[in-house]
Amino acid sequence: MTQLLADIFYERGPIKTIGVIGMGYVGIPAAALFAQSFNMVYGFQRDSTSSGYKISLLNSGKNPLKGEEPGLDELIHDIVLNKKFECTSDFSKISFCDAVTIAIQTPFLNPKDLIPDFSALEDGIRQVGKFITRGTLVVLESTITPGTTVNWALKILEEESGLKAGKDFGLAHAPERVMVGRLIQNIQEHDRIVGGIDEVSTQRAMELYGPVLTSGKLIPMTATAAEVTKTAENTFRDLQIAAANQLAFYCEAMGINFYDVRTGIDSLKGDGITRAILWPGAGVGGHCLTKDTYHLERGVHIAEHEPVDFPVGVDSLFVTARNINDFMPRHMFHLMEKGLARAGKEVKGAKIALLGWAFLANTDDARNTPAEPFLELCKASGADIRVHDPWVTEWPGIDISQDLESVLSGADAVIIFTGHRMYYQLDPHDVRKLSGSLHCVIIDGRNIIDPDVFIQDGFIYKGIGRGDKNSHPV
Ligand code: SAJ
Fold first, then answer.
1. H/E element, 258
2. Fewer CB near the last or first residue (10 Å), C or N of the chain?
3. CA of 289 to the centre of ligand 1 (A)
4. Beta carbons within 10 angstroms of residue 204's beta carbon
5. Residue 298 belongs to what domain range?
6. How would residue 287 be classed by pLDDT, with cut points 50, 70 and 90?
7. Alpha helical stretches, state H, 210-257
8. Residue 99 maps to which CATH number?
9. Looking at the predicted structure, is the pLDDT value of residue 48 above 80?
10. What atom in ligand 1 is closest to the CA of residue 177?
């Protein structure tokens, strides 16, 4: 009678030594917090040209991550000082570990085809498979397509180790939910979804994550349910944004102010009443919302037990939401086109000042920025477009200026794409003087300026959702 995995775990005793694969913005804080609660943590990092430097840096007690991460620097210093953490490129040390977590990014090969690149993750999983022993727990933390843990990762681990998942080793998915700037706090305070390929793996994974949580709670489920939870939580945010964008189109068409309607809808309160109405905007960028819907959509077919029952010939609601959000840069272009036409101008040959390249206000993060498709539309139409951003200083193939006055000078149209703090202070008189146009066009993609102040100063204003102002007299 083969020994049950539960007995193997029991014989092995409580988790003492942990391996974390991938010393990135997910793996480093996770390893640091594990080192605080367990005996020993190995941080595994390939000694590659791009990231090999992290090994010596971490082993000298230094944090290789950029930007402010409260509590992380001290934590790394302490765990190295107390010899509770070692970063290494020697993956054979995985054989010392009771549990191994894998936090390797799954970026898209290119944003257009939306197929994730699992090659780095596969390398990591193969390395783990080579060195795990009976009674090890393996946990995937990367955002992955539903069905990946039980259909793909499990097979690779069995192939490399010659062991049987669920019999000789445990396997689970515990998706990371961290935000740059608050990595430690997120790991400790967010509830942690823990999904095993079986009950025993789930229990063992709860032993691993329980000690690092402060206010966060453990939420056990199956591995596939955990994969769906992570991708769906971002899909739902994308959906909520698309719903606000759709309503904004209707308000523009009906000549009413979306923001009045939003205030009205949001006022509906009371037990069991939820109206999470978000904000329309110039588009949805970033690393999460632009891809997780497609992970979910693809996952349905990978993890499918039976065909989905859904109206024939109708796009999924979630893909429709993605299409609406991806349409917003084109909507901004249409607003600008109409504004220029009212000034008797065409887009061709017009001088455009694009304000904001980052996808998120007051950050330098421009991954999948919606400003890029807008820029392409302007270039394709023969406009002369200049880009300003106070935070993003460079971007492949694009000149980004930090000199607002030079970007505004001579502009026929000013387009607000990102809600950076400094754009709230735009003064109509100064902008008009710099632009030199009698009726300069201004398009507000983030509802940050007061339409009346600019209209009174001679601007031709259009704003997302502002049907009440978009046809103002000039
Ligand atoms: N956006 C809108 N309208 C809104 C909210 C956002 O147009 O009402 C746009 C933003 O301008 C941005 C994009 O959507 O271009 C994404 O904004 P985001 O606030 O969702 O920021 P992200 O992409 O960094 O999302 C992350 C996600 N966190 C993780 O995956 C761990 C997401 O799940 C979080 O909900 C979000 O942060 C957050 O709440 O901060």
1. helix 258-266
2. N
3. 7
4. 27
5. 222-474
6. confident
7. 223-254
8. 3.40.50.720
9. yes
10. 31
Beginning with the edge strand found earlier in the chain, give each strand of the sheet holding 99-102 in spatial order: 85-88, 40-44, 17-21, 99-102, 137-140, 170-173, 192-196, 218-222
The reported pLDDT for the residue numbered 304 is: 87
DSSP state of 409: T
Return the closest-CA partner of residue 95 out of 126, 42, 131.
Answer: 131
Q: Are residues 391 and 336 in the same domain?
A: yes
- The two structure tokens encoding residue 443: 């398009």
Whether residue 353 contacts residue 431, with contact meaning beta carbons closer than 8 Å, is answered with no
Q: Are residues 407 and 423 in the same domain?
A: yes
Pocket test for ligand 1, best of 142, 179, 296 (most atoms within 8 A of CB): 179
Among residues 87, 97, 251, 288, the one annotated as catalytic is 288
Domain boundary among 186, 216, 246: 216
Same-domain check for residues 283 and 151: no
Closest residue by CA, ligand 1 atom 24: 286
* Domain co-membership, 132 together with 236: no
Phi, psi of 233 (to 5 degrees): -65, -30
Q: DSSP string of 104-163?
A: ----BSSTTT--B--HHHHHHHHHHHHH--TT-EEEE-S---TTHIIIIIHHHHHHHH--
Ligand 1 centroid to residue 387 C-alpha, Å = 23
Same domain for 286 and 248, yes or no, is: yes
pLDDT digits (tens, 9 = 90+) for 65-110: 988 899 999 999 999 999 999 999 999 999 999 999 999 988 777 7
Same domain, 173 and 252: no
Q: Which residue has the tokens 């109509």?
A: 428
Say whether 288 is catalytic: yes
Q: Tell me the pLDDT tens digit for each residue of 190-234.
A: 999 999 999 999 999 999 999 999 999 999 999 999 999 999 999
Average pLDDT for 332-336: 98
Pair 181, 230 in one domain: no
Q: Which of 117, 119, 133, 99 is nearest to 21 (CA)?
A: 99
Q: Which atom from ligand 1 is nearest to the alpha carbon of 176?
A: 31
Counting the structural domains of the chain, the total is: 2
Beta bridge partners, 385, equal 352
pLDDT of the residue at 262: 97
Q: Is the pLDDT of residue 17 over 60?
A: yes
Q: Per the structure block, which two tokens stand in for 81?
A: 């000082």
163 by Cβ neighbours in 10 Å (0-12 / 13-18 / 19+) ranks as middle
Instruction: Give start and end residues of each alpha helix (H) in 163-222.
Output: 183-189, 199-209
Question: Which of 199, 216, 233 is where one domain is finished?
Answer: 216
Do 199 and 267 lie in a common domain? no
